[in-house]
Automatic annotation (TrEMBL):
GO terms for cellular component: THO complex part of transcription export complex. InterPro entries: Tex1/THOC3 (IPR040132), WD40/YVTN_repeat-like_dom_sf (IPR015943), WD40_repeat_dom_sf (IPR036322), WD40_rpt (IPR001680). SMART domains: WD40 (SM00320). It comes from Chondrus crispus (Carrageen Irish moss). This is THO complex subunit 3-like. Pfam families: WD40. Coiled coil: none annotated. The keyword Repeat applies. It comes from the Eukaryota. Belongs to the THOC3 family. GO terms for biological process: mRNA export from nucleus. Keywords: Repeat, WD repeat. WD repeats lie at residues 12-44, 188-229.
Length: 316
């Protein structure tokens, strides 16, 4: 029996509606999740105990949006900085040392759907539903660049060294662009339908691309060539995330489980039963703990409460 079978899940409560996005802070001592249409909740995650008692004590409740939050990001250089972006066209940046209100609020042209914080901490990129990519300078707290695209793009990621930007496209390809010029370098073509998710191995070996065609393609990060494809799914795969050490790749799609696979082979190690479809997931920055935000079950019990779940806790 694989040791993953005995690992437990902890629930973090506080949201009153659907949880849309989740992240850990830089050192893994805080867990943050967006939901309730307008709120970002932050919990103490420094000492998570593997027991049946849910965590209810919220450390910070950050407000600043008038519509649903779609993106929550944590700074790669500060454990106190967070950014949110939502359907109200706003990007809010929070420093929880100072206040739970935004220290900066930036307006884009339309709904914010995707986001990423640059590895050096100096820039935040936001993708909108009008196919514009905005870059927010984290020193001036203003938009420094705007890149318009003629065709649809979905999730995007910087390379680990911050020298490249990968953008998943609606035509089944991934653009590989030089950063910060966004000069096209090459294109990764390996899917029959839209590419929707992308993840970069923290050891700079692999790039994982998820697609509506139900496949996950794994690419060599240096040569940008396809190594292998995971094709056991029967539904679209929406998100991929590498663990902190690059050993595991978590995959989620339009189903009620999250697959944990070996990053080097794509072999399935464990499927986490989630009880419902999942909106978002994020690995802990230094431990094999996976936070995820499930949707409400189809027939929720009378005492149902939205939760952020953390899987990977060993029994005492």
């Amino acid at each position: 029996m694989h040791p993953f079978v005995s690992l437990e899940t902890k629930h973090f409560l506080g949201h009153r509606k659907v949880v849309s996005a989740v992240t850990w802070n830089l050192d893994g001592t805080r867990l943050a999740a967006a939901g309730d249409n307008t709120g970002l909740l932050i919990w103490d995650a420094e000492h998570i105990e593997a027991n049946a008692r849910p965590e209810r004590r919220v450390l910070h409740e950050c407000r600043g949006h008038s519509k649903n939050i779609e993106v929550v990001l944590s700074s790669p250089t500060s454990p106190y900085m967070y950014a949110t972006a939502g359907l109200d066209n706003l990007v809010n940046i929070f420093d929880i040392r100072a206040d739970t209100r935004p220290s900066a609020s930036i307006t884009t042209d339309s709904k914010c759907l995707f986001g990423e914080w640059a590895p050096d901490g100096n820039s935040i990129a936001i993708g909108t539903d009008t196919n514009n990519l905005y870059v927010v300078d984290c020193l001036s707290m203003k938009i420094s660049k705007k890149f318009p695209f003629e065709k649809d793009f979905n999730q995007f990621r910087w390379s680990v060294d911050g020298k490249r930007m990968y953008l998943t496209r609606g035509d089944g390809s991934v653009d590989v662009d030089e950063w910060p010029s966004m000069k096209p370098l090459t294109s990764m073509r390996g899917h029959a339908r839209a590419c929707v998710g992308i993840a970069c191995d923290p050891k700079s070996r692999f790039i994982a691309v998820t697609s509506m065609d139900t496949c996950v393609s794994i690419w060599d990060a240096l040569s940008v060539t396809n190594i292998f494809t995971i094709d056991r799914w029967e539904v679209p795969v929406q998100q991929a995330e590498y663990s902190h050490d690059g050993q595991y790749l978590a995959l989620l799609g339009e189903c009620q489980h999250i697959d944990i696979t070996e990053s080097t082979t794509g072999g399935l190690r464990y499927s986490i039963p989630t009880g419902a479809k999942v909106n978002d997931m994020a690995w802990h920055p230094s431990q094999n703990l996976l936070a995820y935000a499930p949707l409400p079950p189809r027939y929720p019990p009378a005492d149902y409460q939205p939760a952020v779940c953390v899987w990977g806790l060993a029994r005492a």
